[in-house]
Amino acid sequence: MVKPWIKDKIDTLKDGEIIAGCNVDIEGLVSLTILNYPMTIISSLEPTGSFLDDSVVCNIGLLRNLAKINFPENPDPFSSITCAMVRLDKNASIDTYLDSIIGISANVISVTDLQIKLQNEIGMFSTILTLLLAVIMILCVIAISSQFYMMIHMRIKEVGYLRSIGMTRSQLFRMFIMEFGLIGLSSGFFGSLIGMALIGPMINWVRSNLTMPVSVVDIKFMLIHLLLGIVITLMLCLISTIIPLIITNRLSPHEMITKGEL
Length: 262
Prior knowledge:
By secondary structure, this protein is an alpha+beta fold.
């Protein structure tokens, strides 16, 4: 049941082997002692957003024998069980199995229902984020275009003189593309650094408030999103530059000089 979250490829779990949850502090350790029995740590779990993050997984048969040895006054280890997971065949009816459980005063939860709930939460969350991202992108393009247009307008007289001494429209276009591209690169770099600093608290908030899996933050994750932030910011700046430059290039050198501020 935990196989999809295991970091390493493991087919079977032998006696004396354990898999630690992501919140279990095993740094620098190769083994743990559980019920006076040494257990070898063979792997760990990716974050699941459940109790497994704070648990260790081992062979239930070995635990039963250890419980009988360490707690002889309680010969029935099942009386100490607080949670049990049952995996059914693909064709088995979950409702029929749940109805067959009698004589146990415990809450019975279907993992399938939890999976459906989790999928619905992730789908709704993804839709909201996608719409929010689309609105933010549109507002960014409008705001950056307006800002770039004002920057070009403040230098319109300078641009008119450059055109008068022989600069072509394509040369003028490339000059502003390079200038605003540098602004986009620097903005994307510093903005991505701020995002990297805030991603840790954001992921902790998601883990504590939402029942959904989250990505593991490592160096590779940070570098990929740093480059992605720079590329997206650069693209937004270049797209936002096109309209102001097209408007400016339609003016003749004489119109630029006469419209420019003294």
